């Protein structure tokens, strides 16, 4: 316990194995006289301050998810896991809201106290003997906070060690504490029995009024609001005595911390720690690494199922994506309706339509940047607690997002304008066109996934994803002829999704010699001839129409687009390569997310 910024959460994270050990200068964390590493995170329970739950699932479904992933299939059958979930629901008093959804910003759910109980239940599923909680009463009213503390006290009486940080509890909560550690400015000023803390500070000259809340009194002492009175002569370590000794206290050092380190409380603890350190087995320096309770394929099935269920219960994004693709598909079809084969409309409208389609495929997937950002806190907590592997979460999120939000809407968008624009009435050409649009979309989505896994905020993600999209569009081959660019800049075209998508679309339309574009030229010619009736010269104006054709491969050659069979498929291979590379890098970035607090 301590004021804001005193180091409560930092100390809790250190002993819970949630701080990067590289940042610790000295000291050890021992559990049952054994030095532990960060693996302690996988065999203990840690309840974060802000409840981290899947809002579209019910209380029972969240608890069942934890049970199915964290309880071994060899030791627990499906019936055993169900009984365990029911037992936790009964123990935490969640029976009335067991089948109610947690709640989201669009969906009303359970109360704050019930969310906190559910968060505790997610960890109680594994029956841990050691529990850590970061300010479990924050944001709760007094009555709800008291009920949460009564629950924790009941758990401690059942043999569990419950360690938590708290700011300023009321008296009914404080009276339930067994052990109290007071902190101020990153240092401990008292550690011992909670019911002896007042006596300790009264011996230092501080006076607690009879009706004052002990927690308020301690915070007043640490903040300097209460000054010590004339010290008790029975005390051998009064504040006045120690503060007057400049040899025993350095400049800017916390006097309360100095006094505590010279008190019998600290000396007793120090002697006990020395005995433990001397008897520590050097061969047992690390705890056994805890493996995952369930295999890879089982985790993938459960996490994918939860992801799909979340999408089905929160379908706003999927509906919006589908509606926009249908709308823009019809709009493009109407704008470029039945493109003629006569120049210049034939060439201008076709190339413009292809580039517009590619632009829509790329920029229409900007929503993919929220994939890993929206659930970043949930992923870090569950992954750190040993729910599932990083690869499981990555695959489940990617595949669950691609099918309903990317592949299906893209196919609908591609099919609507194709026949409205009057392109090749050939099924092979149509499927190649759909394949091209799908590959362009998947490549753009993969790049968005990479950005989503690399940053933690939507604002930064939108900036980072817009930059490569704009560069790719410039080097796409439509806005500027790539052959006329400076040589030291032209290499950027090889990284352009727009270029590959545009090239394949042009190849699919212009590659066949049957799809020639025609130009009609009208000329007025004056002719003179001798009239047979009058034998006089007569002038006459005649209009002649000349028709010439422009074969598609001529345009492709002018754009330096290889129209061989390999020229077509090499663009598909390039799109596939961009997609695979971005997905691999996205997974690497997801693995590199800093899980240390």
Automatic annotation (TrEMBL):
<feature type="transmembrane region" description="Helical">
    <location>
        <begin position="573"/>
        <end position="591"/>
    </location>
</feature>
<keyword id="KW-0812">Transmembrane</keyword>
<dbReference type="GO" id="GO:0008514">
    <property type="term" value="F:organic anion transmembrane transporter activity"/>
</dbReference>
<keyword id="KW-1133">Transmembrane helix</keyword>
<feature type="transmembrane region" description="Helical">
    <location>
        <begin position="319"/>
        <end position="339"/>
    </location>
</feature>
<comment type="similarity">
    <text>Belongs to the ABC transporter superfamily. ABCG family. Eye pigment precursor importer (TC 3.A.1.204) subfamily.</text>
</comment>
<feature type="transmembrane region" description="Helical">
    <location>
        <begin position="351"/>
        <end position="373"/>
    </location>
</feature>
<keyword id="KW-0472">Membrane</keyword>
<feature type="transmembrane region" description="Helical">
    <location>
        <begin position="463"/>
        <end position="482"/>
    </location>
</feature>
<dbReference type="Pfam" id="PF00005">
    <property type="entry name" value="ABC_tran"/>
</dbReference>
<feature type="transmembrane region" description="Helical">
    <location>
        <begin position="430"/>
        <end position="451"/>
    </location>
</feature>
<dbReference type="InterPro" id="IPR043926">
    <property type="entry name" value="ABCG_dom"/>
</dbReference>
<dbReference type="GO" id="GO:0005524">
    <property type="term" value="F:ATP binding"/>
</dbReference>
<keyword id="KW-0813">Transport</keyword>
<dbReference type="GO" id="GO:0015562">
    <property type="term" value="F:efflux transmembrane transporter activity"/>
</dbReference>
<feature type="domain" description="ABC transporter">
    <location>
        <begin position="1"/>
        <end position="210"/>
    </location>
</feature>
<dbReference type="InterPro" id="IPR027417">
    <property type="entry name" value="P-loop_NTPase"/>
</dbReference>
<protein>
    <recommendedName>
        <fullName>ABC transporter domain-containing protein</fullName>
    </recommendedName>
</protein>
<dbReference type="InterPro" id="IPR013525">
    <property type="entry name" value="ABC2_TM"/>
</dbReference>
<dbReference type="GO" id="GO:0140359">
    <property type="term" value="F:ABC-type transporter activity"/>
</dbReference>
<dbReference type="GO" id="GO:0016324">
    <property type="term" value="C:apical plasma membrane"/>
</dbReference>
<dbReference type="Pfam" id="PF19055">
    <property type="entry name" value="ABC2_membrane_7"/>
</dbReference>
<dbReference type="InterPro" id="IPR003439">
    <property type="entry name" value="ABC_transporter-like_ATP-bd"/>
</dbReference>
<dbReference type="Pfam" id="PF01061">
    <property type="entry name" value="ABC2_membrane"/>
</dbReference>
<dbReference type="GO" id="GO:0016887">
    <property type="term" value="F:ATP hydrolysis activity"/>
</dbReference>
<dbReference type="InterPro" id="IPR050352">
    <property type="entry name" value="ABCG_transporters"/>
</dbReference>
């Amino acid at each position: 316990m301590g004021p804001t910024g005193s180091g409560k959460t930092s100390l809790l994270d250190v002993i819970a194995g949630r701080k990067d050990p590289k940042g610790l200068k000295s000291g050890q964390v021992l559990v049952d006289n054994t030095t532990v590493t960060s693996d302690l995170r996988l065999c203990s329970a840690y309840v974060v301050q802000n409840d981290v739950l899947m809002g579209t699932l019910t209380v029972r479904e969240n608890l069942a998810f934890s049970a199915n992933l964290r309880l071994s299939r060899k030791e627990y059958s499906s019936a055993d896991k169900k009984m365990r979930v029911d037992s936790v629901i009964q123990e935490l008093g969640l029976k009335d809201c067991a089948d109610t959804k947690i709640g989201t910003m669009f969906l009303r759910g359970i109360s704050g106290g019930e969310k906190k109980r559910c968060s505790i239940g997610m960890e109680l599923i594994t029956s841990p003997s050691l529990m850590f909680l970061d300010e479990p009463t924050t944001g709760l009213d007094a009555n709800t906070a008291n009920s949460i503390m009564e629950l924790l006290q009941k758990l401690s009486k059942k043999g569990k060690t419950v360690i938590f940080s708290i700011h300023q509890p009321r008296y009914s909560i404080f009276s339930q504490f067994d052990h109290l550690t007071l902190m101020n400015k990153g240092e401990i000023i008292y550690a011992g029995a909670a019911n002896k803390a007042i006596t300790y500070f009264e011996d230092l000259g501080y006076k607690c009024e009879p009706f004052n809340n002990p927690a308020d009194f301690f915070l007043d002492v640490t903040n300097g609001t209460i000054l010590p009175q004339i010290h008790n002569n029975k005390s051998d370590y009064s504040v006045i005595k120690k503060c007057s000794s400049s040899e025993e206290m350095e400049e800017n050092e916390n006097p309360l911390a100095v006094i505590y380190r010279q008190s019998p409380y600290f000396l007793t603890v120090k002697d006990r720690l020395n005995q433990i350190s001397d008897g520590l087995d050097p061969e047992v320096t690390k705890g056994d690494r805890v493996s995952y309770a369930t295999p890879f394929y089982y985790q993938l099935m459960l996490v994918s199922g939860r992801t799909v269920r979340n999408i089905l219960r929160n379908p706003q994004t999927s509906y919006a994506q589908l509606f926009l693709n249908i709308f823009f598909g019809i709009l493009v079809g109407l704008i470029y309706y039945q493109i003629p084969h006569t120049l210049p409309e034939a060439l201008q409208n076709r190339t413009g339509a292809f580039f517009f389609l590619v632009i829509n495929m790329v920029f229409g997937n900007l929503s993919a940047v929220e994939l890993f950002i929206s659930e970043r806190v949930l992923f870090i907590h569950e992954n750190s607690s040993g729910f599932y592997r990083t690869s499981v979460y990555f695959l489940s999120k990617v595949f669950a997002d691609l099918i309903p939000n990317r592949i299906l809407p893209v196919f609908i968008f591609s099919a609507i304008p194709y026949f409205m624009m009057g392109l090749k009435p050939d099924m092979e050409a149509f499927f190649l066109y759909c394949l091209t649009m799908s590959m362009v979309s998947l490549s753009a989505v993969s790049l968005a996934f990479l950005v989503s896994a690399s940053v933690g905020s939507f604002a930064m993600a939108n900036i980072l994803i817009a930059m490569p999209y704009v560069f790719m569009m410039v080097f796409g081959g439509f806005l500027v002829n790539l052959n006329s660019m400076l040589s030291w800049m032209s290499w950027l075209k090889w990284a352009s999704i727009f270029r590959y998508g545009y090239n394949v679309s042009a190849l699919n339309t212009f590659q066949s010699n049957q799809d020639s574009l025609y130009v009609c030229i009208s000329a007025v010619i004056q002719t003179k001839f001798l009239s047979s009736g009058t034998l006089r010269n007569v002038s006459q104006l005649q209009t002649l129409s000349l028709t010439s054709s422009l074969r598609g491969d001529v345009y492709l050659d002018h754009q330096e687009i290889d129209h061989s069979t390999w020229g077509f498929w090499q663009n598909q291979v390039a799109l596939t390569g961009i997609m695979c590379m971005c997905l691999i890098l996205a997974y690497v970035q997801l693995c590199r997310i800093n899980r240390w607090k």
